Amino acid sequence: MKQEKSKLPEIAALLIIVLISLSANMPEQILGQMVDRNILLGVLAASIVIALFHHIRLLMFITMVLLIVGANLPGGLAFALGVSPVVLVAVLVLVVVIALLNYVFLLMPTGDKQSKMDTIFSRKAVLKAVIEGDHQKLARLMEINAEINFNHEGAVPLLIAAEKGNPDIVHTLVKHGADFWVRNEQGKTPMEVALAKGFARVAEILHYAAEGQPITA
User: Fold this and answer.
1) Strand, helix or coil at 37?
2) Architecture, CATH, for domain 120-211
3) Residue 106: its pLDDT value, please?
4) Which terminus of the chain has fewer CB atoms gathered within 10 Å of its CB, N or C?
5) Terminal Cα-to-Cα distance of the chain (whole angstroms)
């Protein structure tokens, strides 16, 4: 159920883009009575940029941009190039339909389930959630596949969580693939940090993870 919900923004982004594109290609007689074409194209461009950074993979983005640009070529240029805007719009709709079906039913293999989001902003968000013990925020970051195995100016999420002694944060990080063998500047692992601080439950979670055993409640 959670996986289906996470797809909704992607589906919505694709639908918005195709609807705006179709609207921008309506005959001038109809479109002129409703909205200015330039406004639609501006909104379309903004939607594509947002989709690129949040929902749509690069290949899909490039494909859609090429189709949209071709569909909006001036009539004379399109004729000279032998390009049919109607055909390109039809192909664009087909591409979006295929993408939607793939998001919903996973028709085509995509390799990794989802590439890790690793930016300066995602790193700071992860560290902030760990430092503040904000489990809900960390869970949301895990849903969008934010990277957690990093060293940002000496700050490593799992080492900080172990030092803070928050078992829920540690459990979430370990559950989502945090490297529990990472070491701090003193050469200590997260489990050793937790033991030194007297956080028995955190050390227990890390011990179970290291042994490959299920973590008990």
Assistant:
1) helix
2) Alpha Horseshoe (1.25)
3) 46
4) C
5) 23
CB 138 within 8 A of CB 179: no
Contact (CB, 8 A) for 50 and 44: no
Reported as a single tens digit per residue, the pLDDT across 49-63 is: 666 555 555 556 666
Q: In the beta sheet, which residues pair with residue 152?
A: 155
CA distance 7 to 2: 9
**pLDDT by residue (tens digit) across 22-38?**
666 666 666 566 666 66
Give the separation between CA 56 and CA 49, rounded to whole angstroms.
Answer: 10
Q: Could you give the 3-state DSSP secondary structure of residue 56?
A: coil
**Predicted confidence band of residue 117 (pLDDT cuts 50, 70, 90):** confident
Q: How many angstroms separate the Cα of 85 from the Cα of each of 32, 42, 69, 70, 81? A: 19, 19, 9, 6, 11
Q: How far apart are CA 165 and CA 128, in angstroms?
A: 15
Side chain identity, residue 142? M
The widest CA-to-CA distance across the chain, in whole angstroms, is 76
